[in-house]
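ESCALATION

Customer reports they have been waiting on this structure for their group meeting. Please prioritize. Original submission:
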Amino acid sequence: MTWLLALVVLCGSAAFAAQEARFDGRIILEWVDENEFIASMRLVENFSFTQADGKTWPVPAGSVVDGRSMSPLFVRLSGHPFEGGFRRTAVVYDHAAKQQSQPWQDAQRMFFEGSVTEGILPIEAKVMYLLVNATGPRWVVRGESSCFNQCHHSGDPELVWRPRVDDDPVVALVSWVREEDPSLEDIGQRVSDVILHPGPHIFGHVR
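Update from on-call: job pushed to the front of the queue and completed.
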């Protein structure tokens, strides 16, 4: 019986490890505010994305999204987040960027995995990951900063920022990704090389 129990546990662990990423619920939105530049929408029902490793990113009913987590360069090269084939991922990522309860690095990798789960070709999902990594918001998880105000340029208590980059080097990296199909780690390193200023800290890189 001992070996049988061990086999059951082993099979169960393998099944858990092999689970597929998935979305749960429906994206149903209602307009909150619409103007010429920014359209805000509220989720009517609960929604979530679960990664293959089991980590879940919930977006509760009532959450407001507006797509501001996507930079103008992202929109120009990959399309509006709520109109393309990655709209569900965009909703989850936009909510994560507003909540700042998980590290920005995790949210960006979730964006890549969610895009692929929605059916975006992996190489194009890597392009979008590059654009989010280079131009998207970064943050210190709420309540986890040990910094004092004098070590930040802005003194923003939420510690949310975007790296400063020029568009041309980032666009060149888009071509590199499509030609070489690099790993996400390699993409992150190349992005670091073109960032002019990484964040609000006066001293050194914040990662």
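Sent to customer with the following note: The longest helix spans residues 2-17.
Escalation resolved.
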